[in-house]
Amino acid sequence: MYISVTRFRASCLKLIRRVETGGEAIDIKRRGKVVARLAPPPATAEAPRKPWEQLRGSGELVAKPGESVLDEHAFEASR
Fold first, then answer.
1. In this structure, are residues 34 and 54 in contact, taking their beta carbons and an 8 Å threshold?
2. For the chain, what is the radius of gyration of the CA atoms?
3. Domain total of the chain
4. Which helix (H) or strand (E) holds 10?
5. Taking Cα atoms as reference points, which of 3, 58, 1 lies closest to residue 24?
6. Residue 60 DSSP class
């Protein structure tokens, strides 16, 4: 998709959301020449999520049995 600098400035938040959700890059033109590109970040390996970050809408915790949200250092700090 191509868009002029003027039009991009008027609707940049909407366009950022569009790139974020749709994944399509947007070329920004000035006087018919592409001067910038708005694109989603390159795909990277996702870091392992913490158990509390794995909550589903139902409130169900998706974690291995015995897995804790606290590490052993957290218990030492409370003494």
1. no
2. 22
3. 1
4. helix 5-10
5. 1
6. -
Structure-token pair, residue 21: 């959700």
Q: What is the mean pLDDT of each successive set of 10 residues along the chain, which is 79 residues long?
A: 92 92 92 94 73 64 68 65
20 lies in which domain range?
Answer: 2-38
Contact 27/3 with Cβ under 8 angstroms? yes
Q: Which of 59, 2, 68 is nearest to 35 (CA)?
A: 2
What are 3's two structure tokens? 């868009």
| Residues in a beta bridge with 30 | 33
Quick check: pTM over 0.85?
no
**Consecutive H or E run containing 37:** strand 33-38
| Residue 64 domain-assigned (yes or no) | no
For 33, phi then psi, to 5°, come to -110, 135
